[in-house]
Amino acid sequence: GENVEQHPSTLSVQEGDSAVIKCTYSDSASNYFPWYKQELGKRPQLIIDIRSNVGEKKDQRIAVTLNKTAKHFSLHITETQPEDSAVYFCAARIGGGYQKVTFGTGTKLQVIP
Amino acid sequence: NAGVTQTPKFQVLKTGQSMTLQCAQDMNHEYMSWYRQDPGMGLRLIHYSVGAGITDQGEVPNGYNVSRSTTEDFPLRLLSAAPSQTSVYFCASSYVDTQYFGPGTRLTVL
C-alpha cells in the first residue's frame, strides 16, 4: 500500500517568515495530494490540493509543489501569521473515484509573534 | 447544510463495553470514511463506504464494525472496547476528492 512520510514533525518560525513542510510518497500511481490544517481541538480542513498533472498550485499565501519523479510534494506558507499555527497533514491517494487516502503523521507549526 | 455531524463528542467506556459512534451527512455524498487519530500517527483509516450497502476495511479495522443502510448515515460500532481504542474518531464524507470531516468523538476506554 501507499506510505506517506512527512517532515518535520514540529516547526517554529517567526511571524512573517516562510514555512515549508515536505512529504514523500511511495506509490508512483498516486495522483491526488491534499493538504489539511487542523487547529487544536478542531477537525481537519482541506486548505489546498494538487493533482499529478500539475507541478505547482498557489492560493494566496499558500502554495504546493509536486515532483512526480522524486515522489515528493511540499507545502509552502509565506508571510506566516499567528493564525497559521496548527497541525498540517499531507496525504496521497491512488486512482480516481473513492480510493483510500493515506495521511502523513503531521507537522505542528508554531508561528511566533 | 449541517455538513458532517458526529455524536457523541465525548465518551468514556469501560473495557469490554460496546457502543456506537454516530455519523451523518446531509450533502448527499457517496463516500464516507471513519478515521482514528492518535498522537504522532496522523489519521488512520478504519472502514469506508462507497455507497449505501457497500463497506470495506481500511488500515486498522480490527475491533470495529460498520454498516451503511442509507446515504446519510455511517455508524461505527465498537464491539468490545479495549484501552488501545482510546483515540479521537473522525468521520468524513466526500463526493469526489475533497473530504469533509466531522467534529470528532473523543473516546476514552478505561
What would you say this structure looks like, in words?
The complex is a heterodimer of chains A (about 110) and B (about 110). With about 110 residues, chain A is an all-beta fold. Helix content of chain A is about 0%, strand content about 60%. Chain A has strands at about 5, 10-15, 20-25, 30-40, 45-50, 55-60, 60-65, 70-75, 85-95, 100-105, 105-110. In chain A, the strands form 2 sheets. In chain A, strands 2, 4, 5, 9, 10 and 11 form a 6-stranded mixed sheet that branches. Chain A has a 5-stranded antiparallel sheet with strand order 1-3-8-7-6, with no helix packed on it. In chain A, strand 6 and strand 7 (about 60-65) form a beta hairpin. Chain B has about 110 residues and is an all-beta fold. Chain B contains no helices and 11 strands. Chain B has strands spanning about 5, 10-15, 20-25, 30-35, 45-50, 55, 65, 75-80, 85-95, 100, 105-110. In chain B, strands 2, 4, 5, 6, 9, 10 and 11 form a 7-stranded mixed sheet that branches. In chain B, strand 9 (about 85-95) and strand 10 (about 100) form a beta hairpin. The radius of gyration of chain B is 13 Å and the shape is globular. The interface of A and B includes residues 89 and 93 of A.
Task: List key phrases describing it.
heterodimer, A: 113 residues, mainly beta, six-stranded mixed beta sheet, five-stranded antiparallel beta sheet, globular, B: 110 residues, seven-stranded mixed beta sheet, four-stranded antiparallel beta sheet, 11 strands, 0% helix
Short description:
The complex is a heterodimer of chains A (113) and B (110). Chain A is mostly beta strands. Helices cover 0% and strands 58% of the residues of chain A.
